[in-house]
Specification:
- It is a single chain.
- The chain is of the alpha/beta class.
- Helix content is 41%, strand content 26%.
- A five-stranded mixed beta sheet has the order 3-2-1-5-4.
Length: 128
């Protein structure tokens, strides 16, 4: 399974989220679910974009994101200060992909949003 994680700032628009999904799906060669912090002001935008792309949506509590903090490869000082999470996008992707998952695309910024992708441990085993 491939999970996409989305982060954003308060200026993020629907178009920013859609651009993130479209970009990362091409690079990751697909996706199964989209995840983000459940308390994010932009979470409704992520949910709507996921629905329009026929992808599952996984809102995640902050504590779940913090559990994958050590697996993030990038960090946002602002996100660390606000939420004690290195990257909302990376932690969301990793958490949604499940235990043992790994990033396949690290965080990148598109407009006012960030996006990352992770592959589940099961999917990694099946990949040649």
């Amino acid at each position: 399974m491939i999970a996409i994680g989305i982060g954003a700032n308060s200026r993020a628009t629907h178009d920013d989220i859609v651009a993130c999904l479209d970009d990362i799906r091409r690079e990751a060669k697909g996706a199964d679910v989209v995840a983000t912090f459940d308390g994010a002001s932009f979470a409704h935008l992520v949910q709507a974009a996921a629905s329009r792309r026929a992808l599952g949506y996984h809102p995640l509590p902050l504590e779940t994101l913090r559990q994958r903090n050590a697996d993030c490869v990038t960090r946002s000082d602002r996100t660390l200060d606000l939420f004690n999470v290195a990257s909302i996008a990376e932690a969301s992707a990793l958490a949604a992909a499940g235990p043992g998952s790994q990033l396949i695309v690290s965080r990148r910024t598109i407009g006012n949003a960030t996006v990352a992708a992770a592959k589940s441990a099961d999917a990694k085993e099946r990949t040649p």
